[in-house]
Write a structure and sequence with these properties.
Elements (H helix, E strand, L loop, with lengths): L7 E7 L4 E4 L5 E14 L5 E13 H10 L5 E14 L5 E15 L13 E8 L20
Parallel strand pairs: 4-6
Antiparallel strand pairs: 1-3, 1-5, 2-3, 3-4, 5-6, 6-7
């Protein structure tokens, strides 16, 4: 079997308002950072929190939706693929980037005042993506155990 899969699924909170730009061809590209967190108990019995930050990129219609509806603190469910790139900074050093190119998004409740709900209900215009228009709501909570799998 020669088939492979590059797929990422995340649920997290937006770290800042979207950075939206227009390409030379006129299509919209939106970028946001997304924080995912997990809690666990370490070997000494202390509760630990770990937050990971992810760079999300939205093209075309999804970029338009992100520009209009997504704000700092919003909770998102996203699916996409990993892409790696590198750039040179001003000093000539190579910087490496990992981006998630999003092809599907569901806006979940943010819990903030006047925005969404705290129960994870879908908010705003709902689900957007290139593959499916309807999808069951993903679970939001994780079990409170420290199993390694």
């Amino acid at each position: 079997m020669s088939r492979s899969l590059n797929k990422v699924t995340l649920i997290g909170n937006v770290g800042g308002d979207p950075d939206v730009r227009t390409t030379a061809s006129g299509s919209r590209v939106a970028k946001v950072s997304l924080a995912t967190s997990r809690q666990f108990t370490d070997r000494s019995g202390q509760q630990q929190d770990r937050t990971q930050w992810h760079r999300l990129t939205f093209f075309g219609r999804l970029g338009d939706v992100v520009e209009q509806w997504v704000k700092k603190g919003d909770r998102l469910f996203v699916e996409g693929r990993l892409e790696y790139s590198q750039t040179q900074d001003e000093q000539g050093a190579t910087r490496y980037w990992t981006d998630i190119i999003v092809n599907e998004m569901i806006m979940l409740g943010s819990g903030g005042p006047g925005r969404g709900t705290s129960d994870g209900a879908a908010q705003g215009p709902g689900s957007y993506g290139s593959q499916r228009s309807t999808r069951p709501q993903p679970p939001i909570t994780e079990p409170d155990d420290d199993l390694p799998f």
